[in-house]
Design brief:
4-stranded antiparallel beta sheet; 12 strands; 189 residues
Length: 189
């Protein structure tokens, strides 16, 4: 039986799977609001490279713009209170144009709704990436960052992976100089 969070996760995955890829990539602009805090994420999503601009508003100490360059396009952004402390974290999902749709997520903390800092996401070990050819999906499920992708076996076509799915589950922890998403579990099914 599906929990409500798992059912929402499956709906989000269906929406991502049917989203158009970069053939007609359009400028991305999303403003997320919760109370007095707003975060605007914008990117031109141009084929020759991309600059993502994050514009915070309502933070108590520092509302400076944050920008970063990427070769990926922004496909979505969302804000959550993953720590359950009444403050905000937000996420930007990026996808490499092309058939592989190699994905990435950037995560940020509002540091008690005072200023922005990037949350470090510990990369998986190389052994956990065997059979990886993109098609990443990201979601928050019950205060856990989840990354999932199909596993390709030797000889699989891009459209027909046969190795099931691999799912990484990350927990948010305080680090020495900020927040860190540490890999908690790897699940294959």
């Amino acid at each position: 039986m599906d929990t409500p969070s798992l059912a929402l996760f499956r709906l989000a995955l269906l929406a991502l799977a049917t989203a158009p890829l970069s053939a007609g990539a359009e400028m991305f602009s999303e403003t997320m609001r919760d109370g007095k805090i707003s975060i605007c994420v914008e990117a031109p999503n141009t084929p020759a490279g991309n600059t993502v601009t994050i514009t915070p508003s309502g933070l108590a100490n520092d509302n400076r713009l944050v920008t970063f360059a990427t070769d990926k396009e922004v496909v979505r952004a969302w804000m959550e209170d993953i720590k359950g402390d009444g403050t905000h974290e937000f996420f930007i999902q990026l996808r490499q144009p092309g058939s592989g749709s190699y994905g990435e997520v950037k995560a940020y903390s509002t540091n008690g709704d005072k200023s922005l800092s990037e949350i470090f996401i510990v990369p998986p070990e190389e052994k956990d990436m065997t059979g990886y050819l993109g098609h990443d999906e990201f979601e928050l499920v019950e205060n856990t960052l989840v990354r999932r992708y199909p596993v390709y076996q030797e000889g699989d076509s891009d459209a027909d992976p046969t190795g099931g799915y691999r799912q990484f589950q990350y927990k948010l922890e305080p680090g020495e100089a900020g927040w860190i998403f540490r890999l908690d579990r790897v699940v294959e099914y």
